[in-house]
Design brief:
CATH topology of chain A: Peroxisomal Thiolase, Chain A, domain 1
Order of helices and strands of chain B: HHEEEEEEHEE
Number of strands of chain B: 8
Number of strands of chain A: 11
Oligomer: heterodimer
Largest interface: A-B, 73 and 68 residues
Distance between the termini of chain A: 18 Å
Shape of chain A: globular
Strand content of chain B: 25-35%
Largest sheet of chain A: 9 strands, mixed
Radius of gyration of chain A: 19 Å
Number of domains of chain A: 1
CATH superfamily of chain A: Thiolase/Chalcone synthase
Number of domains of chain B: 1
Helix content of chain A: 25-40%
CATH class of chain A: Alpha Beta
Number of helices of chain A: 15
Distance between the termini of chain B: 65 Å
Largest sheet of chain B: 5 strands, antiparallel
CATH architecture of chain A: 3-Layer(aba) Sandwich
Strand content of chain A: 15-25%
Structural class of chain A: alpha/beta
Helix content of chain B: 10-25%
């Protein structure tokens, strides 16, 4: 049963755009954001004048090296319009359309342009240097942590708790990089084997180089519209059925790392709004956030698309392949397409939009699709953002 | 290179725009700007953690107890996250605990390869106020010593009982490194 009785208007996604995801772009952050916005507008058959409000998203300012980065990129889409930047770390990409949704669902705006951009390459020689500042200055930084440590610790705990192996988890990387071969924006598409993952550079055991998504530049955009407007714009709108977002505490080392509670809360919020009671059966295609390969399994379980510790087994059976029962990351995900942080999350939403319109071309999943889901995660194992779409 | 498609419906498989640069091409770009920020910070540790760090200097692990739910926080907070009440009561913990998770790092903070790998992990401390086997616990993120990479990889280290190895008192400075590492409890 749907419970969103206070929502004024149904909202649909009516267009999506994407730039190439690459390690180094000539384009500035603004130019990337503009390219994605232009594509999204074109795909909806709209012009900039048709847009009422703008929501932008980008992750830590330090990558671009400019503070108030949201406003910095905003003139690519937000000039002269009500504009807001939202930011929840890696969760930003899915939070951008969530914020765009409430702009439209409240009745405030008829059409909303949602743009997410990330240019990580300016941080030189490697953005790892910038990631050092996300740690707590008092209790964590004095230990000289590397960002990968926290993922490795979570992955190790997940492996222990679920009694799974590096070999099984590497299958996520194999699957997503293979899926990305069909994605025109992809940066890290490849036909690799589990052995390639295990033999890649060992960074922090259990994490090897190919367990991780690459460093990327890129932008993505979607257009949301209220029901009447959406039906005027297109005959195949993709409806936003539910949204969810939650925040956990900063003290990631005071929590069980094997299960993402924050993702679970966000998912329950979105399912309740969408009237979904059995997500493992009702969701047809999903884009769970996969900056690391184990993270996809971890998030699948948080999203209740599998029981806790069940995802590795289903993965081995091909359940999550494009031809499987519940295809996950059919785009190729962050591991295959690339990880320009905020843009990567929005790329996932765009993929679900295309999947639900049967426009994903060679990436189209085999089964018929009615409900799709995109999810992102962010900060110090803290933020879950979820959006449920239907056609 | 860029091949943006115009038209009313642009499906999800066309060529997206953008110009990729190879490393050398980037260095050869006209007008490439180099910039190195000069920022310095001094962080105060706050009401709860200043006292916690003073405790470390004295070789003690201190936590705060929530008067409402009874959780004991390590690292301490001056408020309870769950109850939103002020936590005023200080509790000294034995410092012992079990390893929640552990990893072997071959790289340092800025991705430099380390000569000797370090083992770091999460230590779940023995503290009252939590459900056994529950989702939340009092704990610290720290180095582990006296265990080998093989112990980590085999999983032997998870659940192992550990205690802090303190630096000598004259070397303690009131920071988290006053604990050298957590080491296995003998016997």
């Amino acid at each position: 049963m749907k419970t969103n009785i206070f929502v004024k208007d149904r909202v649909a996604v009516v267009g999506a755009g994407l730039t190439l995801f690459r390690r180094r772009h000539l384009e500035t952050p603004r130019e990337l954001a503009w390219e994605a916005a232009r594509q999204a507008l074109e795909s909806a058959g709209l012009t900039f004048d048709d847009i009422d409000c703008v929501v932008t998203g980008t992750a830590p300012d330090a990558f671009d090296g400019v503070h108030f980065n949201g406003e910095y990129i905003a003139d690519s889409g937000g000039f002269g319009k009500p504009t807001v930047r939202v930011y929840v770390g890696g969760g930003t990409g899915v939070f951008v359309p969530v914020a765009a949704w409430w702009h439209a669902a409240s009745g405030l705006c008829n059409t909303v342009l949602a743009v997410a951009e990330e240019k990580m390459s300016p941080a030189h020689p490697h953005p790892q240097g910038v990631f050092a500042y996300i740690w707590d200055p008092i209790l964590e930084r004095p230990l000289g942590p590397n960002l990968i440590w926290i993922f490795a610790m979570e992955m190790r705990r997940y492996m222990y708790k679920c009694n799974t192996t590096k070999e099984t988890i590497a299958l996520v990387s194999v699957k997503n990089k293979r899926n990305a071969l069909d994605h025109p924006a992809a940066q890290a598409a490849a036909n690799i084997t589990v052995e390639d993952v295990l033999n890649s550079e060992l960074l922090v055991w259990p994490v090897n180089r190919l367990d991780i998504s690459p460093v990327s530049d890129g932008a993505a955009a979607v257009i949301l519209a209220r029901e009447n407007e959406a039906r005027r714009i297109t005959d195949s709108p993709v409806w936003v059925e539910g949204i969810g977002f939650t925040l956990d505490n900063t003290h990631w080392y005071n929590r069980e790392l094997a299960f993402p509670r924050y993702v679970n809360y966000a998912a329950r919020m979105a399912y309740k709004m969408a009237g979904i009671e059995r997500p493992w059966r009702e969701i047809d295609v999903a884009e769970p956030y996969d900056p690391f390969d184990y993270k996809e399994l971890h998030h699948i379980e948080g999203l209740m698309l599998a029981r806790p510790c069940e995802a590795p087994k289903l993965l081995e059976e091909g359940w999550f392949d494009r031809s499987g029962e519940l295809p996950t990351s059919p785009s190729g995900g962050l591991l295959g397409v690339g990880n320009p942080i905020a843009a990567a999350g929005l790329m996932k939403v765009a993929e679900i939009f295309w999947q639900l319109r049967y426009e994903a071309g060679p990436r189209q999943v085999k089964k018929p699709v009615h409900y799709g889901l995109a999810q992102a995660w962010g900060d110090l194992m803290q933020v879950g953002t979820v959006i449920v779409l239907s056609n | 290179m860029s091949k943006g498609l115009s038209g009313r419906r642009q499906p999800g498989w066309v060529n997206p725009p953008g110009h990729y640069l190879k490393r050398d091409e980037m260095y050869a770009l006209p007008g490439l700007v180099r910039y190195k920020p000069r920022a310095r910070y001094l962080f105060s540790a706050g009401q709860a953690q200043s006292r916690f760090l003073q405790g470390l200097k004295e070789g003690r692990i201190l936590g705060t107890r929530c008067p409402r739910c009874g959780r004991v926080y390590v690292p301490p907070r001056m408020y309870c996250e769950y109850c939103h009440t002020r936590t005023m009561e200080w509790v000294e913990l034995p410092g012992t605990g079990v390893v929640h998770t552990a990893v072997v790092s071959y790289i340092a903070a800025f991705r430099e390869r380390l000569k000797e790998p370090v083992i770091v992990g999460v230590i779940k401390l023995d503290a009252p106020g939590y459900v056994e086997g529950g989702y939340e616990f009092a704990g610290l993120f720290h180095r582990l010593c006296g265990v080998t990479p093989e112990d980590v990889m085999s999983g032997r280290v998870i659940g192992m009982r550990v205690k802090p190895r303190w630096k000598p008192p004259e070397e303690r400075r009131g920071d988290v490194n006053d604990i050298e590492c957590f080491e296995p409890v003998e016997g």
